[in-house]
Amino acid sequence: MTVSAGPLPLIILDVQDAIDQPVWKDKSNPGYLAAIERLLAYWRERHWPIIHIKHDEAVPTSTYHTHGPWNAIKKEVAPQPGEPVIVKHQNCAFIGTDLDAVLKRIGATRFVLTGVVIHNSMDATVRAGKALGYTILLPSDATTAVPVTSKDGGRWDARTVQDLTLAILDGEYAQVTDTDALIQSVR
Hints:
- The protein is an alpha/beta fold.
- The protein has a single domain, classed as Isochorismatase-like (Rossmann fold).
- It has 5 helices and 8 strands, in the order βαββαβαβββαβα.
- The strands form 2 sheets. The chain has a 6-stranded parallel beta sheet, with helices on both faces. A two-stranded antiparallel ribbon has the order 6-7.
- Strand 6 and strand 7 form a beta hairpin.
- The protein is globular and about 45 Å long.
């Protein structure tokens, strides 16, 4: 994979203290945060654009509740001065936010998406971003999934959920890669 010239923002989606609460247990990729930290350090060293997306949930029982104790962005990936934080209230980072306007303002036609969880907000954001005309690079090791249980009791383990979601998104909606390959392609 070769990445063309022009701004390539790194987007970090929903990486908040909320994701460490028991409802989000049994993650498929416990190392996702280290991969995001590595990408974040690489982007910061080069002064490339970084955008943080923070989920503020209105439902008081949500771990992401706006005024809840776990709403803060995780300290490992906390924004530095000058790095915008876009607050979202839906699963998709483009709905009801200025993400599209921010990307257009910096001239971005593509972006790298990292964060949590691949089968929820990341999936929704990838699909909307593609529909808006963006090229999306999705490092598989910089995201994670949790098990999914259907109403009828069917259960899929987190690894299966992550693998299937990435397989569905790859090619048609995003270019699935990993942190090492992505860093090599943007050098």
